[in-house]
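Tokens for chain A. Residues wanted.
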């Protein structure tokens, strides 16, 4: 029902290349261990061979893979989530290079389960789990862990980011890529429906989970979405929270771990239609104290089902990115939005991302953990080297996008959300665009640039000036504690930590000290 980080390994020759952010095993030991589990595991089953392409089929940025699996469920999902089949096979024949993936559901015993990555061999072996993130090898395993490793040596970035196009009433479109940890609303933001107060605005979805970012010949950062579908969290999806998604999953959709109604319709918490008869495990649903659908139940659907799907999602050259946005789920501390002072500071902002854990991973929910660039579970190499790679972009282009941080999840003392979220997040995205176009000034604070009180449009929104002030405040003492914690975290990367990142950290600490 979820990713299993404790059973997920990056197997590089040198342990330090995997870094403290990954579980590591020597490649030979890992092969031996997992091959023993694979031995005979498909006997009596059907073996499927899936050639697939990540990215538009004719894009220079697209990458190929072949997944071998004994799960028809995986085949059906990969058919929606990737460009799979003969076109991919032809491109593999042409390119001659592809990621090799081997998957079996095995006996589903958690004691006999591993998800292992061999970035130096461009291969993946996964056994014992049928969960999307562990079994659809094109997604997290290939498009993030293996691709991030390749991207470093080839000079690009593979990121856990949605890509969205925001069109103003004059028809200008800005493309923005946002990295939020799992189950923090990436799919909702990627498919946002402008509120009634925003007549004439349109939002176009390019991707809801992964972005591959390349510098083009002019120094612009361009993004393609390697995926062709969405594997989204179902609970909470309804007419109000995400109408595009709600409409999109009415047909040709695979539901995983949802409850069902008497008529065998899928049901989930906050669907607001129908009543569950059977829970996600197929039991009669009687105990109302527990959710009927698993909190990480999912839909899989082709991107073409989405009414807001952008045609440019198929463009081989991708789209130019105006802004990169990091975010997390934080009850307190992080303001609604702020802008990094420059690219290197933005890398520090990304490295300091933290979020309360969700049901997308096995383990306790609601604990704050560091999730740099929302890539903690997905970076296929040492984070210290990854930050160094991010920092290096400043030497390669003077046209890099600006970097921002958002937090939709601030709460008051009673646990009530301060910001309405969902479609209203467009108001924050507008400020981000205004900043990129040099249309508004901003308030300089020790942690970055914050909006002036009037620059976030709150027309028709039932929100008081005090609440806005709380959302846009920087509590120096709390931030000092935060920066101490960020510093301690960064120090766990030892000598490999880039000096430039340490310097950025020291600058923020000093600015906070001056302000206190
Ligand atoms: C996902 C995740 O499934 O991030 O996209 O867990
Ligand atoms: Mn994700």
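Reply:
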């Amino acid at each position: 029902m979820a990713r299993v980080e404790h059973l997920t390994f990056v197997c590089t020759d040198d342990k330090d290349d995997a870094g403290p952010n990954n579980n590591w095993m020597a490649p030979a030991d890992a092969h031996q261990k997992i091959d023993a589990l694979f031995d005979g595991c498909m006997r009596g089953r059907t073996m499927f061979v899936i050639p697939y392409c990540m990215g538009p089929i004719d894009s220079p940025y697209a990458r190929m893979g072949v997944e071998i699996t004994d799960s028809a469920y995986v085949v059906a999902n990969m058919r929606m989530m990737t460009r799979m089949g003969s076109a991919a096979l032809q491109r593999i024949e042409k390119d001659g290079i592809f990621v090799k993936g081997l998957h079996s559901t095995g006996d589903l015993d958690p004691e006999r389960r591993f998800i292992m990555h061999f970035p130096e061999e461009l291969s993946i072996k996964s056994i014992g789990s049928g969960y999307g993130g562990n079994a659809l090898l094109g997604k997290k395993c290939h498009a993030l862990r293996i691709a991030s490793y390749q991207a470093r040596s080839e000079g690009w970035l593979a990121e856990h980011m949605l890509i969205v196009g925001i069109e103003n009433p004059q028809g200008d479109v800005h493309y923005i890529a946002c990295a939020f940890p799992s189950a923090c609303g990436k799919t909702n933001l990627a498919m946002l429906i402008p509120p009634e107060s925003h007549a004439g605005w349109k939002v176009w979805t390019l991707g809801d989970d992964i972005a591959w970012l390349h510098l083009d010949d002019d120094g612009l950062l361009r993004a393609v979405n390697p995926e062709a579908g969405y594997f989204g969290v179902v609970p909470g999806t309804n007419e109000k929270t995400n109408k595009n998604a709600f409409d999109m999953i009415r047909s040709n959709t695979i539901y995983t771990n949802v409850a069902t109604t008497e008529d065998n319709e899928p049901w989930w918490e906050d669907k607001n239609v129908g009543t569950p008869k059977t829970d996600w495990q197929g039991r009669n649903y009687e105990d109302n104290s527990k959710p009927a659908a698993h909190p990480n139940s999912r839909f899989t659907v082709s991107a073409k089902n989405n009414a807001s799907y952008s045609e440019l999602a198929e463009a081989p050259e991708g789209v130019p990115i105006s802004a990169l946005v990091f975010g997390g789920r934080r009850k307190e501390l992080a303001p609604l939005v702020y802008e990094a002072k420059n690219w290197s500071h933005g890398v520090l902002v990304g490295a300091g991302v933290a979020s309360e854990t969700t049901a997308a991973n096995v383990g306790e929910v609601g604990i704050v953990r560091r999730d740099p660039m929302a890539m903690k579970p997905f970076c296929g190499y040492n984070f210290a080297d990854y930050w160094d790679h991010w920092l290096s972009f400043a030497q390669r282009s003077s046209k890099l996008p600006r970097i921002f941080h958002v937090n939709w999840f601030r709460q008051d003392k009673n646990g009530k959300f301060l910001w309405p979220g969902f479609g209203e997040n467009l108001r924050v995205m507008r400020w981000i665009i205004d900043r990129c176009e040099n249309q508004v000034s901003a308030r300089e604070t020790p942690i970055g640039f914050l909006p002036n009180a009037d620059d976030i449009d709150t027309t028709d929104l039932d929100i008081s000036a005090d609440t806005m002030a709380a959302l846009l405040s920087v509590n120096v003492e709390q931030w000092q504690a935060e920066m101490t914690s960020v510093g301690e975290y960064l120090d766990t990367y030892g000598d490999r930590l880039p000096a430039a990142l340490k310097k950025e950290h020291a600058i923020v600490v000093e600015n906070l000290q001056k302000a206190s």
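The pocket of oxalic acid (ligand 1) is lined by residues 3, 132-133, 182, 209, 231, 360 (CB under 6 Å). The chain has three domains: 5-154, 159-229+312-480, 231-294.
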